[in-house]
C-alpha cells in the first residue's frame, strides 16, 4: 500500500493545486476532468502495493546462545498485518454507513403524483418522467442502477414556473453527464481512503467542481437564462451534503456558483483547447510516474537459504542481558551477482539498535538469486524479516512409532 498511497496523494495534491487555475483558464467543465488523475495513477498496473521488485522471504528466527536459525510463517510476523486489518475494518464501516444511508433514501422515496407530473410535463424535455420521485431531500439526484431525480412535495410552491424549468434542466444535465456514477465512485474512493485526510479534504471540492461544470453546461445551452439562474440559486434553500445524493444546492457552494455565473465563461474553442491541454497534462503525469517506477523483473530475488545458514545472526549478549526482543525487517538491494549491495532496516522494525546491527552484519555475508528481466539478471530487492526471540523453540512433534 505505501506505493499506491504515494501516487494517490500526489494525484490529489496536483488536482487541488490545478483546479482553480484550470477553471479560470478553460472553464469548469475541462477543470472537472482533472479529477481523473488520482484514479489513473492508482490503477496503473505497474504500481502495486509494495514495489514490484521487492520479494519477502520467510521470517528468520534467532535464539540466544543457540544455532537455531529457522524460517517462520511470513504471515505470523508480517508488519502489515494489523494496519491492513484496521484499514479493512474502517473501510467496511464506511461502506456499511453508505449502504444504510442509500437504503434509507430509497425507502423514503415515492412515485410522483399524477397531478404534479402533469404540471411538470412541459418542463421535462428529454427527462424520462419515470426518473422523477418524491423525497424531502430534493431537488437532488440519487445514484442508483437507474439514477433518480428527487423532488420535494412542495416543489410547485417553492419554485415558480421558470425556476422549476431551470432546476429540472440542471438535474437532467447531471444525468446526461453521468454525475451520479462519478459521485458513487467518489464515495467508494473515500471509503477506501477513510484514513487519508487529503481524501476527505478533496471530496467536497470534487462535489463543487461537479456542480460548477453542470451549471456551465446548462448556461452554455441557455445563455439567456443567466440572470434568472442566479436568482433561482439565491432563492433556494441550501442543504447539507450527504452521501449518495447530489443536491441542487449544498450549503457551502452558493458563493462559488454565483461567482462562476457572474463572470464571463470561456467559449467553445477555449473549452476544447482546455480539454486537450488538461488531457495532455494528465497523460504526461502518468507517463512520468511510469518512467520513475523501476520495471518489475520477470523473476523475483530469492534467498539462498542453504548458503545463508552458515552466516546466521548472533544474538548480542547485551540484548540477552537486557531482555530485548523484536523483529528487524531488512531491505536488501541484491546485485546481479547475487551479493547484497545495500542493506537497510525498515522504519517499522521494532528492535533495539544492537539487534538491527546484528541482523545487518549477518546479511552482508548472505547470497541471493537475483531477479531476472528478459532472462538476464538485474538488480532487485528482497525483504528479509529477522525475529530475535528469547523464548525457546516449540518442541518437535513426536514421531509416530512403526506399530502405531
From TrEMBL:
Give me the stretches of Pro residues compositional bias. Answer: 392-404
Q: Which positions are tagged coiled coil?
A: none
* Residues that span the membrane, as ranges: 84-102, 180-203
Residue ranges of region Disordered?
A: 368-404
Subcellular location, record wording: Membrane
Q: Which Gene3D superfamilies match?
A: 3.30.1150.10
Q: Which keywords appear in this protein's UniProt record, sorted alphabetically?
A: Membrane, Transmembrane, Transmembrane helix
Tell me the protein's name: M56 family peptidase
Amino acid at each position: 500500500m505505501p506505493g499506491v498511497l504515494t501516487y494517490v496523494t500526489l494525484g490529489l495534491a496536483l488536482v487541488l493545486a490545478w483546479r482553480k487555475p484550470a477553471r479560470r483558464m478553460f472553464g469548469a467543465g475541462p477543470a472537472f476532468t482533472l479529477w481523473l488523475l488520482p484514479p489513473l495513477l492508482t490503477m496503473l498496473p505497474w504500481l502495486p502495493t509494495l514495489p514490484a521488485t521487492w520479494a519477502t522471504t520467510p521470517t528468520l528466527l534467532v535464539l540466544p546462545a543457540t544455532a537455531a536459525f529457522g524460517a517462520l510463517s511470513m504471515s505470523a510476523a508480517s508488519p502489515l498485518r494489523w494496519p491492513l486489518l484496521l484499514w479493512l475494518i474502517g473501510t467496511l464501516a464506511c461502506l456499511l454507513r453508505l449502504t444504510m444511508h442509500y437504503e434509507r433514501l430509497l425507502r423514503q422515496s415515492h412515485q410522483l403524483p399524477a397531478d404534479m407530473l402533469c404540471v411538470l410535463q412541459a418542463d421535462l424535455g428529454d427527462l424520462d418522467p419515470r426518473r422523477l420521485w418524491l423525497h424531502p431531500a430534493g431537488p437532488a439526484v440519487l445514484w442508483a442502477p437507474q439514477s433518480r431525480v428527487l423532488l420535494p412535495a412542495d416543489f410547485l410552491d417553492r419554485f415558480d414556473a421558470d425556476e422549476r424549468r431551470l432546476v429540472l434542466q440542471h438535474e437532467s444535465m447531471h444525468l446526461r453527464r453521468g454525475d451520479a456514477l462519478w459521485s458513487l465512485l467518489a464515495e467508494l474512493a473515500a471509503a477506501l481512503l477513510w484514513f487519508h485526510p487529503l481524501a476527505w479534504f478533496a471530496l467536497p471540492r470534487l462535489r463543487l467542481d461537479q456542480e460548477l461544470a453542470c451549471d456551465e453546461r446548462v448556461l452554455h445551452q441557455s445563455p439567456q437564462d443567466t440572470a434568472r439562474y442566479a436568482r433561482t440559486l439565491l432563492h433556494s434553500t441550501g442543504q447539507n451534503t450527504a452521501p449518495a445524493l447530489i443536491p441542487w444546492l449544498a450549503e457551502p457552494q452558493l458563493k462559488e456558483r454565483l461567482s462562476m455565473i457572474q463572470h464571463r465563461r470561456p467559449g467553445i474553442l477555449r473549452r476544447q483547447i482546455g480539454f486537450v491541454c488538461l488531457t495532455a497534462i494528465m497523460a504526461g503525469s502518468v507517463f512520468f510516474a511510469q518512467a520513475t517506477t523501476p520495471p518489475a523483473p520477470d523473476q523475483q530475488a530469492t534467498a539462498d537459504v542453504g548458503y545463508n545458514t552458515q552466516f546466521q545472526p548472533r544474538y548480542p549478549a547485551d540484548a540477552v542481558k537486557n531482555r530485548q526482543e523484536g523483529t528487524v525487517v531488512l531491505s536488501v538491494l541484491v546485485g546481479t551477482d547475487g551479493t547484497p549491495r545495500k542493506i537497510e532496516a525498515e522504519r517499522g522494525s521494532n528492535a533495539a539498535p544492537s539487534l538491527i546491527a546484528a541482523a545487518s552484519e549477518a546479511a552482508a555475508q548472505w547470497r541471493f538469486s537475483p531477479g531476472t528481466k528478459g532472462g538476464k539478471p538485474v538488480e532487485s530487492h528482497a525483504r528479509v524479516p529477522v525475529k530475535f526471540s528469547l523464548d525457546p523453540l516449540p518442541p518437535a512433534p513426536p514421531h509416530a512409532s512403526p506399530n502405531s
